[in-house]
Amino acid sequence: MNDVITTEKLSKRYKDVLAVSEISLNVRKGEIYGFLGLNGAGKTTTIRMLLGMINPICGSSFINGQKVHPNNTSLWKEIGYLVEIPYSYPDLTVKENLEIIRRLRFISDKTVVSSIIDRLKLTQYANRKAKNLSLGNAQRLGLAKALIHNPNILILDEPTNGLDPAGIYEIRELLNDLAKNQGVTIFISSHILGEISRFSTRIGIIHDGVLIQEIDTLQLEELCQKRLIVNTKDNITAKKILTENGFSVKDTSSEFIEITDNSAINQPENIASLLVNKGSPPSLLNVVEEDLESYFLRTIGMKGDRL
Amino acid sequence: MKYIIVAIWAEFLKVRSSKVFYLTVLIFAVIPLMTGLMMYISQNPDIAAKLGIVGTKAKLFSENNWSGYFSLLSQSMASVGLIGFGFVTSWIFGREHSDRTMKDILALPVSRSVIVLAKLFISFAWCMFLALVTYAVGMLLGKLIGIPDWSFSLFIKFSHLFFCASLLTLLLNSPVAFLAGYSRGIIAPLGFVIFTLILANFVGVLGLGPYFPWAIPGLFSVAKESAGMQIVPASYIILLSTFILGYWATLRWWQHADHH
Fold first, then answer.
1. What's the pTM value of the predicted model, to 2 decimals?
2. Predicted complex ipTM
3. Nearest C-alpha of chain B: how many angstroms from A41?
4. Which helix (H) or strand (E) element contains residue A116?
5. Residue ranges of the domains in chain B?
């Protein structure tokens, strides 16, 4: 009942390429839904279908229970969006570009333009023509256009592109604040899991146009694989000892020994005792957790188990 | 009503801030300047002799009076107007693609049909302003040069022809608007405009001008004596139908095409 964005078997084909295949997802109110995929995975196509810019070959999408359709203009009042690299009218200043959006969105309060300029830290560029903005500031202007009307729903396609680390942090905090304190529902795409996992509440992974996994961000840590890295003076003997004691030892590209058994990962002290008792004491014992990018690549079958 | 007013205002701001607007004003001011120069040279045989081939060409033009001057202005406007108006329309509709701002105006409380209407309205206003610039500079220059045989009735007749021909040319903006969207840019519609101008001349030679939309405004503003050069009632219907078809296609494209 709380679903704000819903898609039902949304599909899009370009000639012989199936860009998006039967994507069904739902985003609940106040949720930050991270839509993750490599370049060309189908993220932007899905977002454009959500905004009525592209017609699906089948399936449909709903926002606030209303079917998405280009002519359903009342729908767009509550939505702020940014699709791919935001471009603005090059000969107009930052202020003029935002003034156009203010008018086209029928916002009577004229001060919203200066407020959003301040909020996105564009004050010193307010009278600069859009064509003279840096990539980061052009991105901020795009975000300002998406946020100027305080929308209840934000659909953002790679919003931190071109921003420096400080800018990425700022935008992340801003979006967090909007979701947590103002109940704004955010659908945000990215190709960087590490970035998106920091503030999304749920993540959908799309690959080759197919939604292959949906996970709560809190679950993410559990899903990342852990392994125990061991090093001794004589790794050949140590490997033999571990194998004889029932541990599965994996060959790695480095000279270290890698153990993936949960018993070893949860109680590495047992491994230390075993090796000491057998005369091959460890010089290194380290539980290493798979990082998010590796997890993402493994999930889409580009690394690890699925290779 | 508030939707269309807001959309027109937005389009006006975009046009006002662009260099293209001022460039077109300059070009449309140069048309009568060139016509006036030719008239001045033909009025002064000593200058014509010094200028050699330019002088000879100027002498060839027309009668050395207001009637000839008006005729020259109308002819210039018939061809340059077609290209100029086409360029203006291409720019207004195609710039959203070349500047990659199209996506910003597709999901707004203002519908796409209103935006198309506002763009078309601004293209009409801009083109009529350009026609006015040519007209005003032309009249001023004619007075400055001191062209003989001024006649008020001739002036009224020319003014009527000039502005009616400009209005008829405006009706050809809508197919250009469609092509700017369909080709997602400015180049293809401009190519189309130039092609139609060439075709209009060819069709005119064949005597089919009154039935070819892109030849009709030109025929309206120039000589009407020769057979196959006269506008017929069907000409207006053809021109209006072209406009309606172009407008309908533009609307359909904006509302239903995939916008990447």
1. 0.85
2. 0.84
3. 15
4. helix A112-119
5. 2-259
